[in-house]
Amino acid sequence: MVIEYKTRTQVVVEAIREKILKGEIKAGEPLRQAALADELKVSRIPIREALLQLEAEGLVEFEAHKGATATKLSAEQVTELFELRALLETELLRLAIPKLTDAELDQTELILQQMNDAYQQSATSGTWSELNSRFHLSLYRAANRPLTFEMVQNLNSNSDRYIRVHLMLAGGVTKAGPEHVQLLDLCRQRKVEQACVVLKQHILGAAHEINQLVQKLDADAGQ
Amino acid sequence: MVIEYKTRTQVVVEAIREKILKGEIKAGEPLRQAALADELKVSRIPIREALLQLEAEGLVEFEAHKGATATKLSAEQVTELFELRALLETELLRLAIPKLTDAELDQTELILQQMNDAYQQSATSGTWSELNSRFHLSLYRAANRPLTFEMVQNLNSNSDRYIRVHLMLAGGVTKAGPEHVQLLDLCRQRKVEQACVVLKQHILGAAHEINQLVQKLDADAGQ
DNA sequence: TACCTCTTTTTTGTATACAATATCCCAATG
DNA sequence: CATTGGGATATTGTATACAAAAAAGAGGTA
């Protein structure tokens, strides 16, 4: 049995990341080191180190002497984020499909079922979102591209909070379900190009909807 | 006039990055915080923060309670790094070419001339490498993709030290010269697809040569 | 010699304290 | 009234000090 010792910094990274993804800390909001330190019962050192790591993930912006804020993406940036995902994820899928084992495909199908369950129970958007990421990533693992995979993971966590907002306010899930089934099916049939097209549409479609939402929210906030 | 105040951390990031790129710190070598702090005349706090940032750039690996080491890439990882660059950079070039202004093209040509000068004077590989990055990046800026651009910048700095070794040990520059000229020419003519093909070959060709070198070095080291 | 175990030393992780910078508030001036 | 300057306050940046973990060594046993 392996006991995972975590440094305070690691714990803090996870705590703050969750806060941002959940929307508990909103985009653009400043992250005061002292306040976070107080809340999480650590000194400011691990807080600072955590913020630096989150900056690397793109969830936080750090400005010298001014402090950190949760990154606020413009509509253009959201678009770029999703287009970048589309580019990298289709590439991973293209490489992965020929190598996917039946066991991996079954495993992925299981995640799909869990997503369905989560949706039926109208669980929090957090768990659905988590499963959504796992579904996508489980298809890419076989590509055996650790560096690219890690990048995609980061981009996913960045998209995540926008997806969650989308799930809450619009019915983003209804469309995703059938698309996931179709995608997995094409993977089973090893239809590489078709699968990539579906994946690309899946990502860009979500981007489009989220974009409209972001613009609307920005407009509301601007009043 | 804008005076740029830099925090100690920022200074340290640049110092250590240069050390790694120059080869002063070799791949796999441990980075002792106390030693670096002593050498750079700062406390360990800015050193730690700098190491975290360099980890995000991929130049350093950080393991809890064990410290940081300069990342050592295997042949596979070098291949992936360059293939990822090829994917992202051709995408940026594709988007950039239609938008490139004559002024930008002239600017880029200037860099090309400087590279030629640097080569003639057999300057250090550092300045050539620096110019090489600037040449490539100046073609991508017009794509107007800040996120992707930043990623490419990181990947470039990662490739950099391998390119520098390549420059020193093999004659990597000789081929690059004509390829750069050809690439810029195709950009001027707005021949998007041809330019992308040349760029891809340019990157993957370098990858291939560097790979052979890396394998040879590893084999030598393993004896 | 090989291997375990306890101790010592080195190195990293984090709290605290202080320094440097930015921000806010308010009075004085045009 | 708007604006500028300057001091008080809040916030970040960094040094120092100590705690915790890992690595290196020393001694004993089979």
Automatic annotation (TrEMBL), chains A, B:
Record key words, sorted: DNA-binding, Transcription, Transcription regulation
Keyword Glycosyltransferase in record: no
Pfam families: FCD, GntR
Transcription recorded as keyword: yes
GO MF term set: DNA binding
Residues of the HTH gntR-type domain: 6-73
Protein name: DNA-binding GntR family transcriptional regulator
